[in-house]
Amino acid sequence: ESLINRIAAGEIIHRPASALKELLENCLDAGATSIRVTVKDGGLKLLQIQDNGCGIRRADLPILAERFTTSKLSTFSDLTRITTYGFRGEALASMSHVAHLSVVTKTKTETCAWKAHYLDGVLVAPKPGQTVEPKPCAGNDGTTIIIEDLFYNTPTRLSALRSPSEEYARILDVITKYAVHNPKVAFAGSPLPDLSTSSSSETSHAIRLLYGHSIAKDLLHSTFSSKKQDEAMEEESEVDDRESWKAEAHFTNANYQSKKMIFLLFINHRLVESSRMKRALEAVYSGVLPKGASPFIYLSLQINPRDVDVNVHPTKKEVHFLNEDGITDQISDTLQQALASQSH
Ligand code: ADP
Ligand code: MG
Predict the structure, then answer these.
(1) Ligand 2 centroid to 70 CA: how many Å?
(2) Whose CA is nearest to atom 9 of ligand 1?
(3) 3-state SS assignment for residue 223
C-alpha cells in the first residue's frame, strides 16, 4: 500500500519545483503577505517555506497529512466553484509519502507555536520513543513547512531528476512567476533578490526587478474583458457571469528579443500552462519578430471558476476552460493591434 501511495504522490509532486508550487499556493491561500523560501541542494535536501498567513490550528494538526484533508472544501458543491488554489487536500499528504515533512505553525489566537512531524500520511513522534503529538515551541504567527530528503524512498524518481542546479533554476522560476503575479507580497529567501524591501507593488515594477531592466523599456500593457462585462459595467447591472472574463497582460514589443519565449500564465491567480494559448500568442509575434526571437508575456486571466477545468491532470497545471478559443482569439487580436500600432 505504501508503494502505491508513493507512486500516487509522484504524480502530484514531480520534482522540487512542483512541491514548492503547492506550498506557495498554500501560503497565498492562507493570506500571507510575506513568504520566505530556503533551498538546499536544489530542494532535494531541504525545501523550507515560511509565511505569515493564518496558521493552522493545533486541533487540525493530527490529520494534516491525511489525504483529502483540506480546510478549503466544505461541501461537494464547492467543487464547482473553486476560488482558492487548493481544494483536494493532496499536496501535504503526497509530500509526507516521498519526504520527511515537518510543520511549525501558529494562529493568532494560539499562545505558542506547534511543531509536528509526518511520515506516510500520519503524524509521527519527533524521535523514536517520544510521544506522537505536536510539540509546543516558540514561533511567529504563520506557518513554516519543512520538506527534507525529497524522494529519499523513490530512487527512480530521484535519478530521473536533473542536477541540483537545474532543479534550483526551476524553483527560482516558480517563485519568480508568483512574485510577478503577487507584487504586494514580499518574497524573500536565498534564491531571490530580496524583494521584501521593494516599495513598489506594481506588476510592471516586479517584472523589471525580476526579469531585468532591459525588458522594462519594451513593455506594453493591455487589459481585456468580455463584451458582456463591458456592457454590464456601463449599465451597472448584474449579468449572468457565466461567460464574463477579464484579463491583464504585460508583453514586450517588437524591439525586445529573447532567445526563448517567456510566458507567465495565471488563471484565477493560479500558475498554469496552456499550450494552446502559448502557441497562439507565439504566432502573433512570429509576424513582428525576426526568426528565432521570442517575446516575454505575462497574462493574468480571470474567469468564472465554474468554467475552469482543473481536473484534467493531477498536477493541475495544463488547464482547459470554457470558451478557450474565443478568449484566446480576442487576446491575440488585441496583442496584434498593440504591436502593430507600436511599430508605426
Ligand atoms: P489543499 O491546499 O488542497 O487544501 P494541502 O494538502 O495543500 O491541500 O493542504 C492541506 C491543508 O493544510 C489546507 O487545506 C490548509 O488548511 C492547511 N495548510 C497547508 N499549508 C498551509 C499554510 N501555509 N498556512 C495555513 N494553512 C495551511
Ligand atoms: Mg494546497
Answers:
(1) 8
(2) 89
(3) strand
Q: Is the ipTM of this complex over 0.95?
A: yes
Tell me the fold of 212-342: Ribosomal Protein S5; domain 2 (3.30.230)
> Residue 93 CA: which ligand 1 atom is closest?
6
- Shared fold status for 2-198 and 212-342: no
Tell me which amino acid residue 252 is: T
> What CATH number should be reported for the domain whose range is 2-198?
3.30.565.10
Distance CA 99, CA 165 (A): 20
pTM of the model: 0.88
DSSP character at residue 68: T
- What residues form DSSP beta bridges with 119? 122
Q: How far apart are CA 322 and CA 91, in angstroms?
A: 26
What is the CB neighbour count within 10 angstroms for residue 159?
8
First to last CA, the chain: 64
Tell me which residues have their CB closer than 6 angstroms to ligand 1: 22, 26-27, 30, 51, 53-56, 64, 69-72, 86-93, 143
C-alpha 106/C-alpha 293 separation (Å) is: 49
Domain boundary assignment for the chain:
2-198, 212-342
205's grid cell: 515594477
Per-residue pLDDT of the chain (344 residues; tens, 9 = 90+): 678 888 778 777 889 999 999 999 999 999 999 999 999 999 999 999 999 999 999 999 999 998 877 777 544 444 444 444 444 678 999 999 999 999 999 999 999 999 999 999 999 998 889 999 999 999 999 999 999 999 999 998 899 898 999 999 999 999 999 999 999 999 987 556 655 555 555 888 889 888 887 787 888 998 888 865 555 555 554 445 556 889 999 999 999 888 899 999 998 888 988 889 999 999 999 989 999 999 999 999 998 877 776 555 545 567 777 788 889 999 999 999 999 887 65
CB-based burial, 263-297: b 16+ in 10 Å, e otherwise: bbbbbbbbbbebeebbebbeebbeebbeeeebbbb
19 alpha carbon – ligand 2 mean position (Å): 10
**270 HSE (CA, 13 A, CB side):** 27
